[in-house]
Amino acid sequence: MQRLKTACSPFIKRVKVTRMILMSSFILAFAQVTTAQTLILNDSDYFESRGLNVLVFSNEYNGEFFDEKTAGIELIHHEVRTATGGAVRLHHTPEQWDLIPKMINRTVDKTNKTIEVKLRYEAYDFDSRLKVTPKGKGFVISVVLDQPVPKELEGKAGFNMEFLPSSYFESNYLIDGKPGIFPRYPASNTLTKSSSQKIPQFAGHNTFDDRGRDEYIVPLPLESGKNLILAPENPERRVKIQSEDEIMLFDGRNLGQNGWYVVRSILPANKTGEVLSWYVEPNTITDWLREPVIGFSQVGYMPSQEKVAVVELDKNDQPLKTASIFQLNEEGEFVEKLKADVKPWGKYLRYNYAQLDFSSIQETGIYYIQYGDYKTNSFQIANDIYSKVWHPTMDVFFPIQMDHMEVNEAYRTWHGKPFADDCLQAPLNHKHFDGYEQGATTDTKYKPLERIPGMSVGGWFDAGDYDIQTFRHVLVIASFVESWETFGIDRDETYIDQKTQYVDIHRPDGQPDILQQIEHGVLNLVAQVENIGHPVRGIVVPNLHQYHHLGDASTETDNLSYNPSLKPYESDGLSSGTLDDRWAFTNRSSFLDYRAAGALAAASRALKGYNDELADKCINIAKRLFEEANENAKAPGHVMSRWGRGSDMIAMMQLFLTTGEEQYKKGFLDNIWKVLDESLERNIDYALLALPYMDEAYKSKLRGYVVKYKENTDKENADNPYGVPIAKRGWGGSSVAINWSITNYRILKSYPDIVDIEDVYSGLNYIFGCHPYSNLSFVNAVGNKSKKVAYGSNRADFSTIAGGVVPGLIFLKPDYLENKDDWPFFWGENECIIDGGAWYIFLANAAEELAKSNLKNK
Ligand SMILES: [Ca+2]
Ligand SMILES: [Ca+2]
Ligand SMILES: [Ca+2]
Which ligand is nearest to the CA of 398? Predict the structure, then answer.
């Protein structure tokens, strides 16, 4: 392979060049070889040489989730992001919620080839400047202070750079010539200190449960010295760091499983000017080329389906002319079936792309793609590729997400029965670290921290954490009802008993799982309305040291109701003095009332005949919430956010579908065109959902909007070689691609001349592996090759939960898409959310329905 060939070549090249140096005709060649190793400041404002990018605050720390390990000085080393967090930091191994510096300004000086940033810690009135300049084969980082380190930060303020553990597993380090092994698992020394010496975490929160002892943990270095070489044996990962000051190497995972290896020097006290400097030299392999990524669907293709693989190439690489598709024959040998043209597509972000169309292959079987030396794993062409792809999501992912239930699978218990101590009224004027906020009123009959009874029922953990996020419930319930009504999914592979709150995976119980899941979501929504008075934003643990919980959900709280007459950590067996019960954030919003009304109105149809009592409750609550939301919306000063607008439309549509009452239909028809004019993307879906129940005039008027929607999305999707929407943000876009395909499906059902059937499949192809960075399926355990790690509750085990859909690719400015598969702790890349799972189930069934009807028409 390319990589092996070039790994040993730099020495040979250098010898040749020395001999040629006096020959004038080779001066140019000499220049090319030497400059290939020198960093240039490129047009995208980062340092670049072949095999290395040095980003200097191309990405900043954002205040929302604090340290996401995607900011500061970062290395993309042979196209893998291996280092982050190069910045002045106040801890040896900063955790997610430790204080982060704010970037005040960033200056890119093209003439002097320098990037300088000014950083500030507001709480300590502490400013520092970082200067990065190429030097030799590496670069220099200088820390410059105009004022000395503040007294309270002496010995604490330092320059850190963090290296990704999974990039350095099975590697050594050398420090002042002394070798060490990067620990596979953290087991280095720590000590405890009095909390009085601790730099507080953001907003007074604390990730550490000190059990009332007023202390905190300080990690001690693995080693220290002045000359550190990371992975000396590995040309792809080798990094030299030298300084006149002491450099320490830490393992951040002693404090948090998501910690990195941290290289750090403490800033000297009482000094100004350049107070610290590091020379950093990441090794680069001469003429290095990234291996091509051949994007294709790991689930395979149907015979009649369009089959286009997308080849992602190093920018120094050129597409080959042709590639081959090999088929497995009856003798068990692979033979070339097709030599197909590789069609250059052009540049997107940082790579070159080409497409490989092998649609002409229509024979069922097992295939692989051979592109030059690179051979993909095998995949199938078959008629029923979509028929089972949603089963892991329904059978495994959703049961494990179920709150208030013990969840068992064969010999394994995923979690015990959690949150029997639900829940307390959140206190006033409280801003929670997971985005929740309680305002100046409770909007309930409860006093702050008073127990709200009856809440220990139903609901799902919304993601890799363990809170109930009501809006996601609304989305899941609505989507499940649509799946139930459209496809009649009656799969039964889960035993769900609400009486004993027990779930058993892979064990049929005679009831369709999708109805049981709808019921489970509804039970919590109904409990909110009956016990609190209205749907609430969410229910979540109050302490940061609980929130980062990894493991069995039933141990995130003590499962005993809070009893203020007992001391913390004291229990009488029935209650406890530990204030760990979840809080309900209860401020009322018309937006959520409308959306809950819509979901409950829909649920009442699905639950009819399954749980009639609950179905009746659903429709009655839906009507009441709708009326009350209308009343509340009349209050002076009430404004529905731009984002929330249209929520009343969804409520009216669902209420109309359930009751057939004219008032709801009229309300819907009176406003639908206005909201479509306001935002087509946000409102087109329910306009299409309502279509089968409206007249021809509605259909022909909506057609114009659909045509326009299609034009808009076509234009947007033309910017990339995958032809689907690619979200460029800090949370991956799997759901965006899925929902785009779902909208296409809805359009196809009513306006088959406007969209192509392939526009439904292509969102699935994308999440199944035809995407940038890698060709893994983003649906855990679905397809031939899928994710090995995800940000589920089991992420500390470097594992996944089958059927979860990871968000996929995050975008790091200015041009890097990333989905790591050896590090589960990037939530934006790897955290499966329940609404994404529900939408995926719908889309997979839509594709299967189209596949079947397509087959019949042939
Ligand atoms: Ca959450
Ligand atoms: Ca069942
Ligand atoms: Ca408790």
Answer: 2
